[in-house]
From TrEMBL:
InterPro entries: BlueCu_1, Cu-binding_ET, Cupredoxin. It comes from Halomonas ventosae. This is Putative cupredoxin-like copper-binding protein. The keyword Metal-binding applies. One of its GO terms (molecular function) is electron transfer activity. Pfam families: Copper-bind (PF00127). Residues 1-19 form the signal peptide. PANTHER family: AURACYANIN-B, COPPER-RESISTANT CUPROPROTEIN COPI. Residues 40-166 form the Blue (type 1) copper domain. The keyword Metal-binding applies. Residues 97-123 are annotated as: Disordered. Keywords: Copper, Metal-binding, Signal.
Length: 169
């Protein structure tokens, strides 16, 4: 029983990775060509490393985010107001059952779905379980405002889980 649950959890986490590729199989290297660079992030309990990010408009970045903390974290890219909206939504959703960090209790409780459902595809988001590494592929927009990356699980952003995304050139 416990083993089954673990496999399901891993399956959910792996989804963004597979979504990034086109069809996998023997043509896996094709999607690699579209990636301009890979940036490794570490998500700890209430911090991200690095603490800021410099990007160039139009580049495609693959983020590899390793959660080395003991809590579940998310990595969401969006402008500051969209992040704030997302936080409010997360807070409302957490209201009834608190921030337990327990997996598997609710079938559809997945941060990835939440971000997509509530805010459209403009907010790339991935949820990372403790000890797991998640991938997110993102192309930097041409004309963006104040972008930042953040973990919007209640209390985390406030504790420092965010960073500025600055455009270079
Ligand atoms: Cu967090």
């Amino acid at each position: 029983m416990r083993k089954t649950l673990l496999i399901i959890t891993l399956g959910l986490i792996a989804t963004p990775t597979f979504a990034a590729g086109k069809h996998g199989g023997s043509h896996g290297s094709e999607s690699e060509a579209d990636i301009d660079r890979t940036i490794r992030f570490e998500a700890g309990d209430m911090w991200f490393d690095p603490e800021g990010l410099d990007i160039v408009s139009g580049e495609t970045i693959r983020f590899e985010i390793a959660n080395t903390g003991n809590l579940e974290h998310e990595f969401v890219i969006g402008d500051t107001s969209a992040q704030e909206e997302h936080r409010k939504m997360m807070l409302e959703m957490a209201g009834s059952h608190g921030e337990s960090g327990v997996h598997g209790g609710h079938g559809g409780h997945d941060g990835h779905d939440m971000a997509e459902g509530g805010l459209g595809s403009s907010m790339p988001a991935v949820t990372i379980a403790p000890g797991e590494t998640a991938e997110l592929v993102w192309t930097a927009p041409e004309n963006a405002g104040d972008l930042e990356y953040a973990c919007n699980i209640p209390g985390h952003y406030e504790a420092g889980m965010y960073g500025d995304i600055d455009f270079q050139g």
